[in-house]
Amino acid sequence: MTNLEHLGIAVQDLKAATALYTSLLGIAPYKQEHVASETVDTVFFRVGGSKIELLAGTAPESAITKYLEKKGEGIHHVAFEVNDIRAEMARLRAEGFVLLNEEPKRGADNKLVCFVHPKSAAGVLVELCQEIINA
């Protein structure tokens, strides 16, 4: 793992949370994106070498919607940048970690992503992400 890529924060109202974080951080978000495969809308802020990702579910079956129902707003996951997501997935499996994905999938902000189950990571949902290089 090469870098803390971002912190994901689950929010009920993306517009209100975007205004709040714009005021809190003193900067505007650099990107908004809908990720249809995850039924989620995202907003990203750059903070130093890392990012803050606000996430709001767009359907009842969204993992974010379900998370908010159970736990309320707050930190949802921590994401680490990796150079080779498949190699890192294999390494973590060999170390005994439980992954929520068999293969990396396309995520927000031009990334391939995979999640480590919180039960195998001291209660924290960990995201691995690798920049997609377009040829």
Structural summary, described in words:
The model has no long low-confidence stretch (mean pLDDT 95). 23% of the residues lie in helices and 39% in strands. The chain is built from 3 helices and 8 strands. It starts with a strand and ends with a strand. The protein is globular, with a radius of gyration of 15 Å. The chain has one domain: 2,3-Dihydroxybiphenyl 1,2-Dioxygenase, domain 1 (Roll). The protein has 135 residues and is α+β, with helices and mostly antiparallel strands. This is Methylmalonyl-CoA epimerase. Belongs to the methylmalonyl-CoA epimerase family. Keywords: Metal-binding.
List keywords for this structure.
135 residues; globular; 2,3-Dihydroxybiphenyl 1,2-Dioxygenase, domain 1; alpha+beta; metal-binding; metal ion binding; Glyas_Bleomycin-R_OHBP_Dase
Per-chain topology:
Layout: E1 3-10, H1 14-25, E2 31-35, E3 40-47, E4 50-57, H2 63-71, E5 74-81, H3 85-94, E6 105-107, E7 111-116, E8 126-131
Parallel strand pairs: 1-4, 5-8
Antiparallel strand pairs: 1-5, 2-3, 3-4, 6-7, 7-8
Structure summary:
The chain is of the alpha+beta class and 135 residues long. The chain contains three helices and eight strands; from the N terminus they run E-H-E-E-E-H-E-H-E-E-E.
Sheet with most strands: strand arrangement: 2-3-4-1-5-8-7-6
Classify the helix fraction into a percent range.
10-25%
Specify the oligomeric state. Answer: single chain
- Count of the separate structural domains: 1
| CATH topology label | 2,3-Dihydroxybiphenyl 1,2-Dioxygenase, domain 1
Number of DSSP-assigned strands: 8
Low-confidence stretches: none
Class based on secondary structure composition and strand pairing: alpha+beta
Rounded to the nearest angstrom, the radius of gyration is 15 Å
Straight-line N-to-C gap: 24 Å
What is the name of the CATH class? Alpha Beta
Shape: globular
The overall pLDDT, averaged over residues, is: 95
Second CATH tier, the architecture: Roll
Largest sheet: 8 strands, mixed
Q: Could you name the CATH homologous superfamily? A: 2,3-Dihydroxybiphenyl 1,2-Dioxygenase, domain 1
Strand % is: 35-45%
Pfam families: Glyoxalase_4
Organism: Hymenobacter crusticola
GO molecular function: metal ion binding; methylmalonyl-CoA epimerase activity
Protein name: Methylmalonyl-CoA epimerase
